[in-house]
Design goal:
Elements: H1 12-23, H2 46-71, H3 82-85, H4 92-99, H5 114-127, H6 133-154, H7 176-195, H8 212-230, H9 233-242, E1 253-256, H10 269-274, H11 286-295, H12 300-303, E2 304-305, E3 367-368, E4 396-400, H13 402-412, H14 416-435, H15 452-468, H16 471-485, H17 491-500, H18 525-530
Helix pairs in contact: 1-2, 2-4, 2-5, 2-6, 2-17, 5-6, 6-7, 6-8, 7-8, 8-9, 8-13, 13-14, 14-15, 14-16, 15-16
Length: about 550
């Protein structure tokens, strides 16, 4: 199921610390007992520096994934006006965890960021008789991915003038193209280090347990990701032809969580929010749940756990103003053809932008399931969530899975037949991985799991629909399946949506005029305040260099 992470059990102490950061990355101080951030660069333990890099990177991945998921309806977005939902501080902590070189505000998690700790590792490796090139390779790989994502989400980042306060006390931002080029250089350098098969020197590798070959596969996959986004089909295909990338689930790039509730809490953050004595606290996306209900998707019982058999206002279920006030409302004209409030079969969530007050529905709303959060498998028992139930939170944070890569290959294919083949492979791998999580819930009646016949029929049906569809309908089927596979790790969904405009079937915002869809987020406000060379943007319509589609608000069409 998640074999590549099992060896991390022997590092349980560090893993517990790690997951504490992922659970409360914006509010909790990180206590590494002997922190590299408290030591001078020439005193620091390289293993602790690498730990700090991985912790900062992992925290950033969760933030970025959640933002992408909210915007494209894979997760629920609270708030009707886009500009109000995503103010200037949205990327403050991500920026700090990437760049900071000293003490930040009281309460910040990471006092020294990924970039600074990587430079310290390089200096130690250069001066030491011990080979720490594995540490440097990991750091360069993670920083490269982080730089790609900063460009993807805010359009620019700093690199050429970064971390040089003497010459550049107020670093300028480099163009997106230049930062991408710098990230590719980092990947090239990291690959050269891993190719020499360096020892890990006792380091804790939270992702691949010191396997240099897997890190090279990840590097190639990060290149694929970036070639796909920028449309470099030749370079993309060269990696596909080489065959050395994330192709199978055992190569998946992800974060593993545990089941400890206290000292510290290392459970999946969504599990920790939903499996409480006071009930669930997260609303699931009505658009995604309804799409999976319509498709009879075999993953739905793994993704979502229903606490109620029926949602008020759904067909055959009376409306209930107290528990779901919108169930009494006639949908507005702009929601014609979409589920406005109530999804059938008890899938109780919220629609995009709904900012109504919270009713007493914590033991009614649909909770996260066994995948990827390690919760309960939905066996139609309709019980209430609670502490320790299901898989106890031992889920994963998907970052790049083999199924995602198949969708990239399909999107880059030059023929419908090749695209259909990749689509089949992506769906099949996604379902297999998701189903492997069912065993985490020992209390579940797994007779409710879809059998092989049902899964095959589902996949065959999707491929048939894709092959017979034309135009937007064909693209929508492909994109909807990609979105479904991305549940739990939707960073790339935001990129795909701005790149292609698909799917056009996304439900509208609760507010008919929510403002232009965000093409990028605002610059990190704390950096703008302290850096006189920067000026904050006044809107969210700045386009990334690879986003060559029409300007807002006409694109993307579903917004």
């Amino acid at each position: 199921m998640i074999e590549n992470m099992k060896n991390l059990i022997k590092y349980i102490s560090l893993v517990m610390i790690t997951c504490t950061v992922f659970v409360a990355c914006e509010t909790t101080d990180l206590d590494l007992r002997v922190s590299p951030n408290d030591l001078a660069a020439d005193q620091a333990d390289p293993n602790l520096l690498l730990n700090s890099i991985q912790l900062a990177y992992g925290s950033n991945q969760r933030v970025i994934s959640d933002l992408g998921a909210e915007l494209v309806r894979i997760d629920y977005m609270f708030g009707q006006i886009y500009f109000n939902n995503y103010p200037g501080d949205t990327f403050d902590q991500v920026w700090r965890r990437t760049y900071s070189s000293g003490t930040n505000n009281v309460g910040d998690i990471v006092q020294v960021g990924i970039f600074t700790n990587l430079n310290n590792l390089i200096a130690i490796n250069d001066a030491s008789d011990i080979d720490y090139s594995f540490h440097v390779g990991v750091g360069k790989t993670l920083l490269a991915h982080q730089l790609f994502q900063l460009v993807d989400y805010i359009g620019q980042a700093t690199f050429s003038e970064a971390l040089n306060p003497v010459d550049f006390p107020f670093p300028n931002l480099d163009s997106g193209e230049d930062v991408y080029a710098a990230a590719f250089t980092l990947l090239n350098e990291a690959e050269a280090l891993f190719a020499s098969d360096p020892p890990d020197q006792g380091a804790t590798d939270l992702f691949y347990n010191g396997d240099n070959d897997n890190w090279i596969k990840l590097i190639n996959t990060l290149r694929m990701r970036s070639y796909f986004v920028t449309g470099n089909s030749t370079a993309f295909q060269a990696i596909v032809d080489g065959g050395n990338y994330i192709m199978e689930s055992e190569d998946d790039f992800q974060i593993q969580y545990g089941t400890s509730e206290l000292q510290p809490d290392n459970r999946h953050p969504d599990y920790a929010q939903d499996y409480t004595p006071s009930g669930a606290n997260i609303y699931q996306s009505n658009w995604l749940m309804n799409k999976m209900v319509e498709n009879a998707d075999p993953r739905i019982r793994y993704y979502f756990y229903r606490q109620e058999e029926g949602t008020p206002g759904a067909p055959g279920v009376p409306a209930d103003e107290e528990s779901l006030s919108c169930s009494l409302v006639i949908p507005p004209p702009h929601y014609d053809g979409f589920v406005y409030c109530s999804v059938a079969n008890g899938y109780w969530g919220r629609s995009h932008g709904n900012d109504e007050g919270t009713p007493p529905d914590n033991f009614l709303r649909t909770a996260v399931g066994v995948y990827p959060a390690g919760g309960l498998f939905d066996d139609s028992s309709f019980g209430e969530v609670g502490l320790g139930e299901g898989g106890g939170g031992a889920g994963v944070e998907p970052i790049i899975l083999s199924s995602y890569v198949d969708f990239w290959i399909g999107a880059m294919s030059s023929s419908d037949a090749a695209k259909a083949t990749a689509l089949r492979s992506g769906i099949t791998k996604s379902i297999a991985k998701v189903q492997s999580f069912g065993s985490l819930d020992s209390s579940a009646d797994l007779s409710f799991e879809p059998d092989d016949t049902a899964v095959t029929a589902y996949v065959d049906g999707i491929i048939t629909d894709f092959n017979t569809a034309t135009g937007d309908d064909k693209e929508n089927i492909f994109a909807e399946q990609y979105w479904t596979a991305l549940y739990g790790g939707a960073t790339e969904a935001y990129n795909y949506y701005r790149k292609t405009g698909y799917p056009t079937t996304l439900a509208p915002n609760w507010e008919p005029e929510p403002g232009a869809f965000p093409r990028t987020f605002l610059l990190p406000q704390n950096e703008v305040i302290t850096n006189p060379n920067l000026t904050q943007r006044t809107d969210l319509t700045t386009q990334v260099f690879w986003d060559t589609n029409p300007a807002s608000p006409t694109f993307p069409p579903a917004n």
